[in-house]
Amino acid sequence: MPKPPKPPSFSRHPVRPARDKRPSPGLPDRQTLLDAVAEGQTDVGELAQRFGLKGADRRALREMLKGLATDGKLGKRGRKGFAEAGALPPVGVADVVSRDADGDLYVRLVKAGEDAPQVRLAPGKAEQAKGAPGLGDRLLVRFEKTEAGELEARLIKRLGQSAHRVLGVVRKARGEIRVEPVDRKSKDSLLLAHNDGDKLKDGDLVLAEIGSAPQRYGPKRGRVVQVIGREDEPRAASLIAIHTHGIPTGFSAAAEAEAEAAKAPELGRRTDLRDIPLVTIDPPDARDHDDAVFAEPDTDPKNPGGWVVWVAIADVAAYVRPGSALDREARDKGNSVYFPDRVEPMLPEALSAGLCSLRQGENRACLAVRMTFDARGKKTEHRFVRGLMRSAAKLSYEQAQAAIDGASDEQTGPLLEPILKPLWAAYACMKIGREARQPLAIASAERRIILDDEGKVASINPRPSLEAHKLIEEMMVQANVCAAQTLEQRGQPLIYRVHDAPSLEKLQSLAEFLGTISIAWTRGEPARTDRFNRLLAETREGPHADIVNEVVLRTQMQAHYNTENIGHFGLNLDRYAHFTSPIRRYADLIVHRALITALRLGDDGLSDFDITRMKDTADLITQAERRAMAAERDATDRYVAAFLADRVGAEFQGRITGVTRFGLFIRLDETGADGLVPISNLGAEYFIHDDRGHALVGEKSGQRWPLGRMVQVRLAEAAPITGGLLFEMLSAPDPRDPKAPAPRLGVRGRAPPPGARGFRGPGQNRGKQRGR
Known about the structure:
Elements: H1 30-38, H2 44-50, H3 55-70, E1 74-77, E2 81-84, E3 91-99, E4 105-109, E5 119-121, H4 126-129, E6 138-145, E7 151-158, E8 165-173, E9 176-181, E10 190-192, H5 194-197, E11 204-210, E12 220-230, H6 236-244, H7 253-260, E13 271-272, E14 279-282, E15 291-297, E16 307-314, H8 325-333, E17 337-338, E18 343-344, H9 349-355, E19 363-373, E20 379-390, E21 393-396, H10 397-404, H11 416-437, E22 447-451, E23 457-462, H12 467-489, E24 496-498, H13 504-516, H14 529-539, H15 545-555, E25 560-562, H16 586-598, H17 608-612, H18 614-644, E26 651-660, E27 663-668, E28 674-678, E29 687-690, E30 695-698, E31 704-706, E32 710-719, E33 724-729
Parallel strand pairs: 5-7, 10-12, 13-20, 14-21
Antiparallel strand pairs: 1-2, 3-4, 3-6, 4-5, 6-7, 8-9, 8-11, 9-10, 11-12, 15-16, 16-19, 17-18, 19-20, 22-23, 24-25, 26-27, 26-32, 27-28, 29-30, 30-31, 32-33
Helix pairs in contact: 2-13, 6-18, 7-8, 11-12, 12-16, 13-15, 14-15
């Protein structure tokens, strides 16, 4: 087999646009524009800012870019970005698609077309791959140029199941045995041979492999690789999510043995913190306790009104040593994954719920930071110690809050004056500094799924937002800042938690939407957290409060891990690193090791592998975090659909949270569930998708279905196996708005495309909060 042709040239894009060139007046010529894209400025907003373009010139720039893309000079990157023709991202998810005569594997980006370039996969190391990848495997890779100038893909991690495998449910009907996929976006079922399917039962949940022989007509052929359960099992939702997203489960015998061999800590060279009455405050059902807190007034006469706050974190680095089986598997998992019925932990239970959990009344190894704040809430100093602590109490958020509110119980009563009231007083001081810093104040409405003893959904309740939550969050944020500051000061490499500011294009879209509801937003105004907060405050009591909060949330970028610091926009911090949850996040464990090395707190700090592969680790755990969030979200969708399955035909009140060319996404007030009203259900006339006004508009009548509108719907279908909900619209549309501008770049409404139930509403991005 001949080798595939050499892929096109590749340019590595910097995290932020270059700012060393002064904006040029007027539209650039085509070559200047191509040069700017080659330098890494791929977003329309970034390019407009570079060349100082506004208004009509900005629109002309967009048309120039589209023309270059049409001519093959540029390629599309996302919805609003462009790249060099054929350019590949620095890191991407790719499938192994071919093998040449020499045995070399070639990969192609998952989101690319069949004619996209194939890139040779560089030979990997056993510790990275857990076995060599093969045809059909899906990988996380980094694209790099060799010294000879050729492009190759370097393996970062193998991702979940093969691209040629399907998770589905066995269906037996009309003499055929098929596997119907559980993925809402997949419309292809697999036909099984009778000798393969005779032992299967209708409703079996199976992992099937697509046959290698191509089928020109009819369904694809396949064979069952593994039976993993039944579709009617109460806990099938999380099982499907685990297999669909390739969540690593369980631990090797070697990792379990290392965890079981761990011994209780001794004082040794540690700082003795057992006299400090640190307490843990967590959800009532928490099994692992990463962090403990304590506060007291600062006795230094130079700091009147100031406070000393201690944050102690489980010393996981003492048990998970670099290069061990525990370490390799924790890095592979990236983080713990939380489902309504189970947890897939990053560490074995002997550590996660045992020696690494800060249990009440038991000696535990910890890495602690002592922080001092002045009366205005500004941190004036901090220092880290590696200590031995003993938790004075295990409290829930609700318990601690009730005690502060005057409803102490037998446990919190004796703790109120010496521990809880000082904690709240210290937080009141820290809150002054927080309000001066102005982090984003976006409201996040979360729901909690309550299961009965059989694993079925008993209720879906809103999660309360307590001051106790905010207290712990702010103390953890400040401890994370201290970790980043210390490591920077010591010149130690680390993994930052970064969050970029919204792009100019997103801000432009925000301004256009706000204009449709008569709210002013200066076009071209730079992104600032205090400006967003002022907008949220001004609309909080009005009819548009929920939807403004939603749109502001969508305007934000996604936080991730990086070895290069670009700051954290949402928290309005110059530097930030995750330090406070090493039991459930590998990023925090790396930061712990970096602190141990920088402060000479032991010989179990960063290894050479940690340092040389830190960039790959940051990419890997970012991917793992997003994989976990998607799995948690999918499981929640299926549990909610199962909960509503016996209420088909019932009427609900909800809000339009997404407007697309194929329908409206509705979020129900009662449960927070998201589902689709197909455009075909909205009436006989054509509807135009007004992307500027976030509305569907009747072509003849001008009647509107705008984002944020409260509506009444009827549940038409609930599919627990896919998590899909379909609604029928009962409300009437808004009348024509004579002041509304004509829709821009509208699309005539039509029936939803195949697999439309798989399209996620913008509101379906919620899941367990992993920390900012």
